Amino acid sequence: xxxxxxxxxxxxxxxxxxxxxxxxxxxxxxxxxxxxxxxxxxxxxxxxxxxxxxxxxxxxxxxxxxxxxxxxxxxxxxxxxxxxxxxxxxxxxxxxxxxxxxxxxxxxxxxxxxxxxxxxxxxxxxxxxxxxxxxxxxxxxxxxxxxxxxxxxxxxxxxxxxxxxxxxxxxxxxxxxxxxxxxxxxxxxxxxxxxxxxxxxxxxxxxxxxxxxxxxxxxxxxxxxxxxxxxxxxxxxxxxxxxxxxxxxxxxxxxxxxxxxxxxxxxxxxx
Length: 271
Hints:
The protein is 34% helix and 27% strand.
């Protein structure tokens, strides 16, 4: 069992505290006050409250660190080399529609590298976490990516563009071509609408691979290191090392990563 760092313990406590508040609000989802941020992009009072809880908990323990948050944007800390990257409620649309599949995601970036990640699913009480060089875990159980080596045996996850997301008709058409390519060579494709959990499911071997375009740093930062520490690969569409600014994320195991990314690239070229 890996020794958890002080930073990781702080992050896990913050995620669990925010998760408890979200579960309470989820039980009263119909009474939540909801405001619109943009087309089909909703933010609830629960989302904002969870972010406030996480920020207070982390600031109390690490007052010098900065923050990059979905709702509040960036706060530069006294230590410019360390910042937390936070999605307080990944899967807001699921949450607001009463679907019990959403998560709290917290990553720590140090000197430009994500070194620690926590993804907490409060409904299932599943705490995924990883630290650089220490492996990836679900609570105390070590995680490893799937050992499957054939696309035909593999199940994939993705996110589907929708109103206001995905670069309009052109981006939607590109997605359809990629989806068609994977549909034609795989055992199936799933879309659950929570990128952080999609990536942790790759780490846990529940999916063989995941791809999505147009994600933000807080969507993928924690899941990224969890996949890597579980023995997986995370790249851009061209197979280069993934960066938080990469337009497409492709995550899978070593046995199918090259074929997976190649299929997505070649499908994009089809008419």
